[in-house]
Here is the input.
Amino acid sequence: MGLKARRPVSRPDVFDRITREVVAGLEFYGDKGWLEKPKGFFVKPPALSDVTVRKVNGRRGSFHRIFFDSGYTPHQGEPGAERWRTYTANNREYALLLRHPEPRPWLVCVHGTEMGRAPLDLALFRAWKLHDELGLNVVMPVLPMHGPRAHGLPKGAVFPGEDVLDDVHATAQAVWDIRRLLSWIRLQEPESLIGLNSLSLGGYIASLVASLEKGLTCAILGVPVADLVELLGRHSGLSHDDPRRHTMELAEPIGRMVSPLSLVPLVPMPGRFIYAGIADRVVHPRQQAIRLWEHWGKPEIVWYPGGHTGFFRSRPVQRFVLDAVRQSGLVDGSPTQLHRPA
Here is the structure.
């Protein structure tokens, strides 16, 4: 209900523009061949070297904020591209960084919807425990249209939301930004292991990154979204004869194009981990989590008895995440074979 309050469905006359863009998107992506071969949609970004790092003294201890220019731009002629360029706060990427003075393994934590704020991200990822007790370098990037990247957005512009092409651009830029961040980490410490940790919307983005980026040691997907357009259509609350519902159904091929279900995971099987809630009313267990689990080869998974946000108080989930970083070699030793970029 909280998500719906922030994401009401527009009137049919307003929704007409979304419908026109979906139709144009189907033609554009179809002509490019990306509806059939989605990997071509995701462009590999250039390596990142120019990063601003600022120290922050917090209550728990000092950490850093890092900033860099995203450099992302939509494809030439892509529907919705002109509007996306007006969301200028997305041009700058931000991240929180907890880093040790000596080289350590890295864990990139990708947040969920309505996050991207320091106190919330630090708490939900239990970042200080990962840093202080497990000895990891922890970095938490901010997704497009979240946190400081939401400044100046027009009313109703959110990610994820009803605007399908905004969701596509946000997904593409999120994947781009995290891949750039990974290149910076590798430039800093070429021999260090790197893993992904994620929540909800972040699980969706992390699973895409893990299907495009070689050399990751692990990917921990928490209550992950598998198909964003399908999920949004399910939660729209629209009747089957509503034209707006038809638009979401029309957009399903675009949703599959930007879904990890259409890509092959590159993280080695021992480094794949998923947890989900059996009573999750946001990310449906069967329609989302199980489909992704099956597509990823049925890796280790844990189910907790709760809803979408119940993971935070779940002891089994806490143990699962800690065990995952240990089993993958990020903590207490290295895996038998290190998987580094080719």
